[in-house]
Amino acid sequence: MERPDNLIIVIFGGRGDLAMRKIVPALYALYNENLMPERFAVVATGRTGVTDEAYRKEVRRALAGSEGEKSGTNTDEFVALFHYIDFDTSVTGAYKRLPDFLEMISQKFSIGGNLLFYLSVPPDLYGVIPRNLALQGLNNEGDGWKRMIIEKPFGYDYRSAEKLNRTLLETWNENQIFRIDHYLGKETVQNILVTRFSNGIFEPLWNRNYVHHVEITSSETLGVEMRGSYYEGSGALRDMVQNHLLHLVGFVAMEPPSSIDSTSIRNELVKVFESLRPISSDEVHRTAIRGQYTGAHVRGEWLKGYREEANVDPASMTETFAALKFNIDNWRWGGVPFYLRTGKRLPTRVTEAVIHFKPTPHYLFSGESLCDGCNQLIIRIQPDEGLLLKFGMKIPGAGFKVKNVNMDFHYSDLAAERIPEAYERLLYDCMKGDSTLYTRSDAVMAAWKFLDPIIEAWKNDSSIPVYGYPAGTWGPERADDLIEESELTWRYPCKNLAEDGVYCEL
Ligand code: BG6
Question: pTM above the 0.90 mark?
Answer without folding.
Answer: yes
